C-alpha cells in the first residue's frame, strides 16, 4: 500500500523597489491573481505564499480586492503567509539590526493586513550564510526555506535525506531549515502533470525506515507561473497546467496531502541537525563567478547533465554571492555607501524622523540592483536609481537641516586604498583616487539623485551564446517566422529583441566615472574611442593618483589629486604630470575642477588631451525624457547619440523624469565627443540592449613646451529645471 506523503507548494512573489507600475500590474494579472483564483476554485489545496513588502505596498494601493480575497484564504487555513526581509534585501550583507528590523517590519505588516503571525520566511535568492540563523530566530521566526543544493553541498543525499526539515543553530539560536527539491522546481510547471504525479508516487512507495512522513517541498518564484515569456498561456490559458495540477492534487488526496510548512513543523519532528555552507542555488553560483570562470562552469554543468552524472553535479557550486561585490565596482560602491548610511541612521535619536530614515535605508537595501543573472538587475537603470534615491534620502534625514561640508578620507570600498567622501548640502561626492582619480558618485540631495550613476560595459558569460547564434544565423527575432510568444518557456533558443546586438558587445578596459584623464594619438577616431578599441597614449586613466590635499573648513572644501606619469609621443615615452583640484562651497550646487598639466620632458610635446565625464539619467535613450543642449542653444539633441562637436564652451544634459539639469562649462573651447554606454543583457525574453548613461570627452590639441604648464577649468552645476519637447 502507498504510504501517504505530504506536498508543500510555496510561491514567492516580488517586485523590486523602483519597478515600473505597469510591470507590476502585468505580473498581477498574469501571475498573482490567477493563482488566487485557482486556490479559490480548489479549496483543498494548501500552499505557502510570500509577498515582498514593496509588492504589498503596490497591492494595497492598486489591488485591495485581491488582498481581501487573499485574507479569506488565509483565514480558511488554506494559505500560510511567509515573512522575510520587508524590502527583499540580501540578508547576509546588511547589518544585523537591519536584518531583524526588516523581518519584524514584514511580520507587523502581515499581522496588520491579514491578522496572522508568521512562523517562517522566504530567504532572498536563497542566499544563505550560517550566521543568519541567529538574527532570523531573534526576529521570532521558526524556519526558513532553502534549496536542496545547500544540503547536497555538505553530503546530504537528495534521493533519501531531503524529505522533511532539519535544525540548525548559531550561538544557540535554533532554526528549522526546509529543503526545496530541485526536481519539483524544474518539473512544475514544465513537465506533464502525469509525470510529476508518477514521481511523487515513487517517493511515496519508498520505505520510511522509522522517519517522519515524507514532505516534498517546492519553493519558486511566482512570476514563473505567468509572467515569464510564454508562461501565462501555458499555466493559466489553453495549457491549463495549474488547473490540471490542482485538480490532480485533489483527486489523489488519499495518498498525496498538501500541507503548509508551519503545519508540518507543528505535527512532525525534524530529520536531524544540519549545518549548511554559505551558498545559494546553482545558477547564482555560476553568475557570481568572473566571466570566463562562469562560462567554463556552465559548460561543465551542461556536459555533466548530458551524461546524467547526478553524482558529480551535486558538488558543483560555483562562487558565493559576495563575489558580485568583486565583479561589479558599482554594486560594491552602493553596498558600502548603504553600510555607511546605516551607521548614521542607527545613531539617530529614536523618533519619527529616525523611523522615516530607516524606511528609506531599508528600501535602499532591496536586492535586485546588487547583482546580475537571468532575472537580477544591476543593469536595470530604474532599480539603481531607486536604490540611490532611498540611500540619499536616508543620509539626508540622518544629518542636520543645514549640515556643514565635511571631508572624510578612508577606505570606503574596502580595496585597501583610501577614498574621499564629501558630505554636505546640496552635493555629496565620492572619489576613488586609485581609479584614475575619478569621481564615482555625485549626489544632488534636493532631488535624491546620483548624477554619475552609470555602468561600465563588461563581458558576460552568456555573450558567447549570442555570438555563436549570430554566426550560425539562428537568432530568433520578433520579426522571425517563429515569434517569441511561440517559444516554450526556458527554451534553449537564442532570442533577441532586435537585430545586430552582436555588434554592440563592447567592453571597457577601465571603470567608467567622471574626471578621468586621457591622452590620445592624432589618429584616434571617435568610433574607436566609443568601442574602447584604441591605443591610450598616457598612463593615467586607470592608474592611482596621490591625494595631495583634502581640506575643509565647513564652508569650503578642496580636494587635490596628482599623478606624475608619462605619455607616448611616437615611440618615445615622456614624463608629464596632471594635477586636478576640486572646489566645493557650502550651499552651492556647483563645483569647479582646475586642471594643471606640466611637461617634465626636455622636449616640446604635441598633445591630444581629453577629460572624460559621465551623466547617468535613466530613460536617457529617449529624447522625450532627456536631452543635450550646446552652447546655450535651444535645440534638444539626444543623449544616446554618437557625435563629435567643435568649439564647445558649455553644454547641458537634462532629465524631464527628475526635473534636473547638469550644466558643464569649460574655460577653453573644446572638441566634444559624446557616446552612450549601452550593454547587452539576457532576460527571460531574450537578449536586449540597455542604456546605462552617456560619456563625454572634452578634447584639446595643443603643444606643451619643456617645463611649461597648461591649465583648464571645468565647472559643473546642477539645477532643478529641464527642457521639454
UniProtKB/TrEMBL annotation:
The keyword Transport does not apply. InterPro entries: A-amylase/a-glucTrfase_C, A-amylase/a-glucTrfase_central, Gal_mutarotase_sf_dom, GH-type_carb-bd, GH57_Enzymes, Glyco_hydro/deAcase_b/a-brl, Glyco_hydro_57/38_cen_sf, Glyco_hydro_57_N. One of its GO terms (biological process) is carbohydrate metabolic process. The keyword Mitochondrion does not apply. GO terms for molecular function: carbohydrate binding; catalytic activity. Residues 411-714 form the Alpha-amylase/4-alpha-glucanotransferase C-terminal domain. Residues 319-396 form the Alpha-amylase/4-alpha-glucanotransferase central domain. Keywords: Carbohydrate metabolism. It comes from the Bacteria. Residues 9-276 form the Glycoside hydrolase family 57 N-terminal domain. Pfam families: AmyA-A_glucT_m (PF09094), AmyA-gluTrfs_C (PF09095), Glyco_hydro_57 (PF03065). Belongs to the glycosyl hydrolase 57 family. PANTHER family: ALPHA-AMYLASE-RELATED, ALPHA-AMYLASE-RELATED-RELATED. This is 4-alpha-glucanotransferase. It comes from Candidatus Thermofonsia Clade 1 bacterium. The lineage of its organism: Bacteria, Bacillati, Chloroflexota, Candidatus Thermofontia, Candidatus Thermofonsia Clade 1.
